[in-house]
């Protein structure tokens, strides 16, 4: 089982995720997530793994499952969106069945904190080029901006690629007005959440790192009081 | 509070959503959703509303909140994705504070049932032209396909627009190979879930209606045993 814990603390888990962890004989995951659930994993076999090393984590999980154990691989957000679901299915190669338990993804969590920016068609793009050619990412940024999508950026900046977000912003400015609202949420729905609503031309003044989700509005997005809003088009 | 119940039954609710409903004095929602939570709403004021009429539902909720009540507007999925969050913020107009509690959206739910189709950048597009010009939707379908996004279609077909899905498929075929995997999930994560993995050229042979979510792969998406998989690009 590949289990999504949602964006935040215990109250972002679904009942189904809790049940999956309770039923598992082995729980595999990054230390940070295991530390959220000490009561649920007490007495179980545990495989705590470092942040990278997804392939090794998947191999361990699949080996344990192939040996007859019920295994839960836990991660934050939705494991089906840039998460562990894919690599587990690849490594399993049909030897063991894989069940994905979805969670609330970062796009939903950041949007909820900002108001309602995703009432309309949107594109989700990761700026990490660790596993994707940068040219592919650039093409997608162009197409999403040309299509007037609301655009959600995952992994907007890391030490290894500090300037990708600048390039992404410049592409946006070819198609979107400088005053387009941009929402920036760090640690969405966690205790230390930081939330800023700014504009496309000023967004780079805000601190953006790997724990941040960036939502860039479409041509209809506006600021409504404290909220970022992409109206759906109702006649009021 | 605008509260997302997730895609399915009680086990798709987050703890935060349950708490919000428990704390509310008034619960507003479509009959179907209120019927899922009889124990949670017992003794509370309720406003059950028909499927359409979102504006009227929002007005009632805001009036009650302005009168000092704690109100929870409940809906399935994530209220921040094509849901009630936007219209509530619009109607509230700053008179009452609005808090959005996110839920697992249909894209995540359908993806989990199919395997791991959303491991890579994706676009979410609604084919409903009730509130969006059809030309805008066509443009977005073109751009998303040209950008080699995985594409998630919400509201793929209704009685009023039975052929939009055919047009969408034809646009996809301009950019994507006929053998591109397509996942079709009806009633994702509910008791009567139906799940099909087919190809772009044959997808119209499958029954598609308003309760269906359609996920069209990118150029890397493949079928891996029983699963639809868009690999992330790990070296195995």
From TrEMBL, chains A, B:
Sorted alphabetically, the keyword list is:
Cobalamin biosynthesis, Methyltransferase, S-adenosyl-L-methionine, Transferase
Tell me yes or no: is Cell division among this UniProt entry's keywords. no
Source organism's superkingdom?
A: Bacteria
Q: In which pathway does it act?
A: Cofactor biosynthesis; adenosylcobalamin biosynthesis
Name of the protein: Precorrin-3B C17-methyltransferase
Gene3D superfamilies linked to this entry: Cobalt-precorrin-4 Transmethylase, Domain 1 (3.40.1010.10), Methyltransferase, Cobalt-precorrin-4 Transmethylase, Domain 2 (3.30.950.10)
**What's one GO MF term for it?**
precorrin-3B C17-methyltransferase activity
Q: What is its EC number?
A: 2.1.1.131
Domain (Tetrapyrrole methylase): give its ranges: 2-201
Q: Which InterPro entries match?
A: 4pyrrol_Mease, 4pyrrol_Methylase_sf, 4pyrrole_Mease_sub1, 4pyrrole_Mease_sub2, Cbl_synth_CobJ/CibH_dom, Precorrin_MeTrfase
Q: Tell me which Gene Ontology terms the entry assigns under biological process.
A: cobalamin biosynthetic process; methylation
């Amino acid at each position: 089982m590949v289990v999504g814990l949602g964006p935040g603390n215990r109250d972002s888990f679904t009942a189904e995720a809790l049940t999956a962890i309770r039923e598992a004989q082995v729980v595999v995951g990054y230390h940070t997530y295991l530390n959220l659930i000490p009561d649920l994993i007490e007495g179980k076999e545990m495989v705590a793994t470092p942040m990278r090393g997804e392939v090794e984590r998947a191999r361990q999980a699949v080996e344990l499952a192939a040996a007859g154990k019920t295994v839960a691989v836990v991660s934050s957000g939705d494991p089906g969106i840039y998460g562990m679901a894919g690599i587990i299915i690849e490594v399993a190669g049909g030897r063991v069945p894989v069940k994905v338990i979805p969670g609330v993804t970062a796009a939903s969590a950041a949007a909820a904190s900002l108001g309602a920016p995703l009432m309309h068609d949107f594109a989700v793009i990761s700026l990490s080029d660790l596993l994707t050619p940068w040219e592919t990412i650039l093409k997608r940024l162009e197409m999403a901006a040309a299509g007037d999508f609301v655009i959600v950026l995952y992994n907007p900046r890391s030490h290894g690629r500090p300037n990708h977000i600048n390039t992404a912003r410049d592409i946006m400015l070819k198609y979107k007005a400088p005053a387009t609202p941009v929402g920036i949420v760090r640690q969405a729905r966690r205790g230390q959440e930081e939330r800023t609503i700014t504009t496309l031309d000023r967004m780079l003044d805000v601190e953006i790192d790997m724990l941040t989700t960036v939502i860039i509005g479409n041509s209809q997005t506006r600021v409504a009081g404290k909220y970022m809003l992409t109206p759906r088009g109702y006649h009021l």
